[in-house]
Amino acid sequence: MDYQEALAFLQEASKFGMNLGLERIKELLKRLGDPQACGIKYVHVGGTNGKGSTAAFVASILQAAGFKVGFFSSPHLHSYCERMKINWLDITEDRVADLLSSIKPYLAAMVADGFEPPTEFEISTVVAFCYFAQENVDWVVLEVGLGGELDATNVIVPEVSIITNVALDHVAQLGKSIEAIAKTKAGIIKENQPVISGVTGVAEKIIKERVNDLKAPLYLAGRDFCWQIFEQNLAFQVFSCSFGQKKLENLKINFLGRHQVQNAALAVATAVLLNLSEDAIRKGLEQTKWPGRLEILCTKPLVLLDGAHNVHGMRSLSVALTDYWPNKKPVAVLSMLGDKDRENALAVILPHLSHAVITRPPSTRAKKWDKLADICRAAQVPTEIEQDIKKACQIGLRLAKEKNEMLLVTGSLYMLAEARQYLPELLKEGNY
Fold first, then answer.
1. How many degrees, rounded to 5, is the angle at CA 85 between CA 84 and CA 88?
2. 358 forms bridges with which residues in the sheet?
3. CATH topology of domain 3-287
4. Which of 340, 333, 386, 390 is nearest to 367 (CA)?
5. Whole-angstrom Cα distance, residue 42 to residue 218?
6. DSSP letter at 37?
7. How far is CA 318 from CA 63, 128, 328, 349, 391, in A?
8. Are 148 and 188 a contacting pair, CB within 8 Å?
9. Can you tell me the distance from the alpha carbon of 186 to that of 147, in angstroms, rounded to the nearest whole number?
10. Where are the alpha helices (DSSP H) in 35-164?
């Protein structure tokens, strides 16, 4: 297979949708010689929000400490190759094609032997394990895809598990309560292996029960480590972080938003637990990049992109808008997938907006995407509907210019990724 054929093969596998469970991936890995169990050390990162950013911070710190670091996350923004990195270099298209070509006969043999076909995410996870094993990486930072206990990534024993937080999301797959979702996410905790977490409330109780059962040391934000923000501006944030007897002052991240400081603090606690140097922590934090999260794409006009796609994410975005732009009422290009809690998520962000442009996320899960307009109008927010994302961005830019306001693009990472490709061209041409 070439790269395009490999993507088509993955697309075909995606028809099996979300099918949680470990039997298929364990069988496929066994047939491939268990590449995930070849002496690589892992950090496993789960949670409802912030797991991608936290994983990125951890991977950058490990790299700054001199290790060869694999990184696996999903979904991607612009290219499938973004999902697998070694020392922040994306896997090449040719390598993806080669790996999938080598795995394909084992998949066919599995199905011939009566096993269910693995899902697209399971195949991608296996590709990542094979890639990292072949490249002899020292560490892999592995982001959970969905949930935890039955997620395809949950076939490793990590040096540290991180659970960023627990909120209501993917309720159809994970459960309709915080308790149920917390139990699922706690499934990545392994016996005697330490856990770093920012969970609170009921979720904290569930996590504590799990670590007690497994005799796993637990380090909680606010109890075992804490942080304080000293400076926030539109380029970076400076904070301190204390963990036990160790206090690190004047740490810097090139991210916006208080929630990103918490994500960074989870990474710092992990690094301290792994006995990484203060110099590596500082360098790693400052070198971390993670696009699409409170990303300022342009300053004149001001264009902000944020991948907030659920209630918890919208709350973090809302706080950031108040912190950084208290006098602004953005025009927003909005879309959300049909399986999200749209009404409650929009209820958080709509009071900040002067106008909304509703567009369709490029996903099979975009059901009744235009119903967002009804929610916006019910909240007295003037609203346009435009299915084409590029045209929606043009309308948003024009309205922002007319109102002398900022443009906010948010609600679906899939839509945001496409908008992020169109916006630089539109801004350069002034074609709006």
1. 150
2. 334, 385
3. UDP-N-acetylmuramoyl-L-alanine:D-glutamate ligase (3.40.1190)
4. 340
5. 17
6. G
7. 33, 35, 12, 6, 25
8. yes
9. 9
10. 51-64, 93-112, 120-134
Omega prior to 301 cis, within 30 of 0? yes
Locate the domains of the chain by residue range: 3-287, 295-429
Does the predicted model carry a pTM greater than 0.85?
Answer: yes
- For residue 237, the cross-strand partners are 232, 253
Look up residue 167 and give its amino acid: A
The two beta strands, 89-90 and 218-220, are unpaired
Per-residue pLDDT band for 204 (boundaries 50, 70, 90) equals very high
- Distance separating alpha carbons of residues 221 and 162, to the nearest angstrom: 11
Domains 3-287 and 295-429 in one fold: no
Query: CA 271, CA 219: separation in Å to the nearest integer?
Result: 13
Q: How far is CA 116 from the centre of its chain?
A: 28
Sign of the CA dihedral with 281 first, then 285, 287, and 288 last: positive
Q: Could you report the per-residue pLDDT of 298-307, keeping only the tens digit for each? A: 999 999 999 9
Q: Which of 24, 17, 41 is nearest to 170 (CA)?
A: 17
What are the CA-CA distances from residue 188 to residues 84, 146, 161, 180, 196 (Å)?
20, 11, 7, 14, 12
**Phi, psi (rounded to 5 degrees) for 334:** -125, 140
What's the CATH fold of domain 295-429?
Answer: Protein-Tyrosine Phosphatase; Chain A (3.90.190)
- What tokens appear for 243 in the block? 């963990």
Query: What is the average pLDDT score of the chain?
Result: 94
Per-residue pLDDT, 22: 95
d(CA 241, CA 35): 36
* Residue owning tokens 């392994």: 190
| Strand (E) or helix (H) holding 415 | helix 413-429
Angle, CA of 267, 273 and 274, to the nearest 5° = 90
Six-digit token pair at 185? 């996410």
